[in-house]
Amino acid sequence: DQMRMFLTRLGHASKSVVTGDITQVDLPSGHASGLVEARSLLGQIEGICFCSFSDVDVVRHPLVQKIILAYESRDMAQGREVGKRTEGKPNGSG
Q1: pLDDT tens for residues 34-88?
Q2: Is residue 88 a part of any domain in this protein?
Q3: Alpha carbon distance 30, 78 (integer Å)
Q4: How many whole angstroms from its chain centre is CA 48?
Q5: pLDDT tier at 24, thresholds 50, 70, 90
Q6: CA nearest 18: which of 38, 45, 40?
């Protein structure tokens, strides 16, 4: 609901950037991530773009890439949906 509240308050000729990591959600079980919901619901609307990254985009300590891959591997082995981020395709012109 907070994401919806924010996104529905854009003014004329304004732009908004929302950043987040869909693999890092600390909401109680049963509560949907506003970012995940927005991506699912709004991803096909022209003028809205979601950019996604993967472990190769990590610019922190080199060990962080290995840590990310280890967690994703564990999640896949446990049958969890992995928040694997794939290259995003912009919608619309921009």
Answers
A1: 999 999 999 999 999 999 888 788 788 889 889 989 999 998 999 876 654 434 4
A2: no
A3: 19
A4: 13
A5: confident
A6: 38
The amino acid at 30: G
For 16, left (φ over 0), alpha (ψ -120 to 50), or beta?
beta
* 92 located within any domain: no
Count: domains in the chain? 1
C-beta neighbour count of 69 within 10 angstroms: 13
Residue for token digits 């446990």?
Answer: 78
What CA–CA distance (Å, rounded) separates 67 from 71? 6
Tell me, yes or no, whether 85 lies in a domain: no
Range of the domain at 58: 2-77
Name the pTM for this structure.
Answer: 0.60
Give the whole-angstrom CA distance, residue 74 versus residue 76. 5
Q: Please report whether residue 90 resides in a domain.
A: no
